[in-house]
Design a protein that fits this description.
The complex is a heterodimer of chains A (224) and B (220).
Chain A lengths: L1 E7 L12 E5 L14 E10 L2 E11 L4 E5 L6 H9 L6 E6 L2 E4 L11 H12 L6 H7 L15 H10 L8 E5 L7 H16 L3 E5 L10 E4 L1
Chain B lengths: L3 H17 L1 H21 L3 H19 L6 H9 L1 H7 L4 H30 L7 H25 L7 H24 L6 H29 L1
Helix pairs in contact in B: 1-6, 2-3, 2-6, 3-6, 3-7, 3-8, 6-7, 6-9, 7-8, 7-9, 8-9
Classes of the chains: A alpha/beta (224), B mainly alpha (220).
């Protein structure tokens, strides 16, 4: 099971992708039926912000059970790459193909008067998920006590947990997480790490933009 | 495609508008305030006031429909909810329609219900008030859809309230003209009333596509 990444800095249409090629082998055994098609693949992505090239000729693919950490300094395009993969932002070049994904962006998606409970109810309704699982989900993310507090009174970490709790409502193979561990305490990081591990062992894949040390094991990395 | 995302968007918008508090009060207060300035400026001729009252209410209605429009989509853009709606379920044009209807229910319907009272204060004939209320209701719905279209285009603009007015007001023109003609006609249901209704239907049919395209750009 080999996954490859290529990435270049210059945006010259038609030029060959530069040589930075990353390969990794997964140590963990993956059930055979998970190894067929990649859950997410992108080829030749290039994107500009104004006159600036954020990245070009970027290709990646992600198989079941894998986690890809996107690293890079502020402003190098981590968020933009995730938004492109999610389908929120149009690219200047390249194509992407992905299974259904969960998007947990930098902005939580909570309305000021929504509580974690009503937020999950809204999305459970929209996605046709079973609303009776909301209480267990709140418990799993240590949000039971904050469950009925409006978002304007929640801490940044609690809002983050709530937006990550959306991933538990319906099962989608690919998770695209922008800074999932920011604003979280040690306890919160452990909760999120457990969710990610459970998702991967269930045959899902995760791409996360991160800074510094993160409690996710057995990952591939992409530095922008 | 199921209607579940639309219902979810509608109830989320409704809940947020009610919980926000100012949703119904602010436009209604503006509507009443703008209409009540007119007697003070026109003078003491009550017959003159009664004659211009329907037109005054149309202008006040058009302006008060814009009062809370700025945050309709901008808030969603800022808190990330728009990203989620863009990724999931129904097309953005339909989500925008659901949100606009919820907004109208909280902010627009009270204006319609308030209009007979203001008409009475301005000296309109009491027998005219019911059909005037229906006309203001129809016209207000068109105003809210065009206003929401303006709001979707200005979603990414800080303090875009004035921009929304500049975009939306030209679209108000047909509704305002047929609305005014409807109320100045002595017939119970004059032909102009059908044109007023048609302008509202046109707004409901066309504005959502503009909103969908504008919001897609705003998310990008």
């Amino acid at each position: 099971m080999i996954a490859s990444l290529t990435q270049g800095r210059e945006f010259r249409p038609g030029s060959l992708p530069p040589a930075a090629l990353l390969t990794s082998h997964l140590a963990r055994p993956i059930p055979p039926d998970m190894t067929r098609a990649p859950l997410l693949s992108a080829t030749g992505l290039g994107i500009m912000r104004g006159e600036r090239v954020l990245f070009s000729q970027l290709s990646l693919s992600l198989n079941a059970g894998e986690a890809l950490l996107v690293r890079g300094d502020n402003g190098t395009g981590k968020t933009t790459l995730l938004r492109v993969l999610a389908g929120l932002t149009e690219t200047e070049a390249g194509t992407r193909k992905t299974s259904l994904c969960h998007w947990v962006g930098h902005r939580s998606g909570l309305k000021p008067h929504e509580t974690p409970r009503t937020h999950l109810q809204t999305w459970a309704r929209s996605w046709g998920a079973d609303a009776s699982q909301i209480d267990p989900i709140l418990g799993k993310l240590a949000l039971a006590r904050a469950g009925d507090v409006p978002a304007s009174s929640l801490s940044a970490g609690q809002r983050k947990r709530t937006s990550l709790a959306r991933t538990q409502l319906v099962n989608r193979p690919v998770w695209l997480l922008d800074e999932p561990f920011s604003a979280l305490d040690a306890d919160g990081k452990a909760h999120i790490a457990a969710l990610i591990a459970a998702h991967r062992s269930g045959g899902g894949a995760v791409i996360a933009a991160v800074h510094g040390e993160v409690p996710v094991e057995d990952t591939r990395e992409l530095t922008l | 495609m199921s209607a579940a995302p639309l219902r979810a968007a509608f109830s989320q918008a409704l809940h947020e508008a009610w919980a926000g508090g100012a949703g119904a009060v602010l436009p209604s207060g503006f509507f009443a305030g703008a209409a009540m300035l007119v007697p003070l400026t026109v003078g003491t001729d009550t017959a003159e006031l009664a004659r211009i009252a329907p037109a005054v209410l149309w202008i006040a209605l058009a302006l008060s429909s814009l009062v809370t429009m700025e945050r309709l989509f901008q808030a969603d853009l800022e808190d990330g909810a728009l990203e989620l709606w863009a990724l999931d379920g129904a097309p953005l044009s339909q989500i925008a329609t659901a949100k606009t209807l919820a907004h109208w229910l909280v902010s627009g319907l009270p204006l319609m219900l308030l209009s007979p009272l203001l008409g009475l204060i301005l000296g309109m004939d009491a027998s005219d008030l019911p059909r005037a209320m229906i006309a203001y209701g129809l016209g207000g719905l068109a105003f809210f859809f065009w206003g929401a279209f303006g709001a979707s285009l200005a979603a990414g603009v800080r303090r875009g309230g004035l921009l929304i007015a500049l975009i939306a007001l030209p679209f108000y023109v047909p509704t305002a003209i047929f609305g005014a003609l409807t109320l100045s006609s002595p017939a119970a249901i004059p032909p102009e009333a059908y044109f007023l209704a048609a302008s509202t239907l046109f707004a409901i049919a066309v504005a959502p596509f503009g909103m969908g395209a504008a919001l897609k750009l705003a998310v990008d």
